[in-house]
Amino acid sequence: MNVIIVNKYKDMLTGLNIEIIKSMEGVFEVDEIIDTFSNFYFDRMILDITAIKNHTNLDNLQKLSISLDMSKVILILDDNPQSETQEYLSKLISMGIYNFTRNLEGINYLLSHPNTYRDVAHIHNVDGHGGVLIENTISKVKIIGLKNLTDHAGATTLTYLLKKHLEANYTVAALEVGKRDFTYLEGENLISTTDDDLPKELMKKNDYDVLLVDLNNYPDDEICSFVLYLVEPSTIKLNKLIKRDRKVFERLNNKRVVLNKSFVTESDVAVFEYEAGTKVFHNLPTLDDRKMPQSAINDLISKMGLMKSVEGEDENFKNKLLGLFKF
């Protein structure tokens, strides 16, 4: 079942051969559209952008993208020159709006083949020009990505530990992409999402100070302010990594490489840097994720420029027998 909201492009949609359960015609406040359809089941919504009052104000589209499932929405763009630019389309993509067109043929195609991020990634401007990066769209938020380079290098646990430490001084949320490991951890604002929905979830948290993202296989690292690339420096893990990608460390030059679950002494870090051909941002030993706070995590936070004060003992951080397990 489908819904249609039309204004300027009503005549174009007369040739659309689909079943309609609800239609609206005219110009509507974005809140009215949200109130009408946020709890209304539909397969697809065909939305004429000119039916949104003040549609040239992208804040209205952002508000819509946060409140509705945009994977079900096909947005008919206006024919003004601005909406044809890569900068404009990139801003839509940063909001999680991937299904947009200007003609009936495009609508019919998207009804059967809705886009995912991968389908529009070639349009998305991720070099920072024009202010279309998520970090620029959400100017207040620092988005920190974590990515395993070696297998099981500990990104999920480190994301969790960073969140627990940072939330003493900041409003913090943690997101994981493509997995649901957070279900086994205790705490609020631990969000499991998908590749397609990550930009939308980041938009929902635009009033937070720090967002931590366990990227897993997410293809666009530049959605983050910066990324910590995690390497467990055991012989077998490093050899597996090099066999998969011999130039991996060459590409990581000037990136933030973190040795995690590391047995490498500080004096041997220089040897690792020479052999790998890349600098090490931080050397982090294996940690007990039940102990809070931890000086090693605070050292990493300090290197990231986020340390406001050294945490002392806190009742919320003390280990308690009944607090070891979530269930």
Description:
The protein is α/β, with parallel strands linked by helices. The chain is built from twelve helices and twelve strands. It has helices at 30-37, 58-67, 86-94, 104-112, 117-120, 134-137, 155-166, 198-204, 235-244, 248-251, 269-276, 295-303; strands at 2-6, 20-25, 44-48, 73-76, 100-101, 142-148, 172-177, 190-193, 210-214, 226-231, 256-262, 282-285. Strands 8-7-9-6-10-11-12 form a seven-stranded parallel β-sheet, sandwiched between helices. Strands 2-1-3-4-5 form a five-stranded parallel β-sheet, with helices on one face. Helix 3 (86-94) links the parallel strand 4 and strand 5. Helix 1 packs parallel to helix 2. The longest helix has 12 residues, at 155-166. The protein is elongated, with a radius of gyration of 23 Å. Residues 126-139 and 310-327 have low confidence and may be disordered.
Helix percentage: 25-40%
Mean pLDDT figure: 85
Task: Note the overall shape.
Answer: elongated
What pattern of helices and strands is seen along the backbone? EEHEHEHEHHHEHEEHEEHHEHEH
In terms of topology, how is this protein built?
Layout: E1 2-6, E2 20-25, H1 30-37, E3 44-48, H2 58-67, E4 73-76, H3 86-94, E5 100-101, H4 104-112, H5 117-120, H6 134-137, E6 142-148, H7 155-166, E7 172-177, E8 190-193, H8 198-204, E9 210-214, E10 226-231, H9 235-244, H10 248-251, E11 256-262, H11 269-276, E12 282-285, H12 295-303
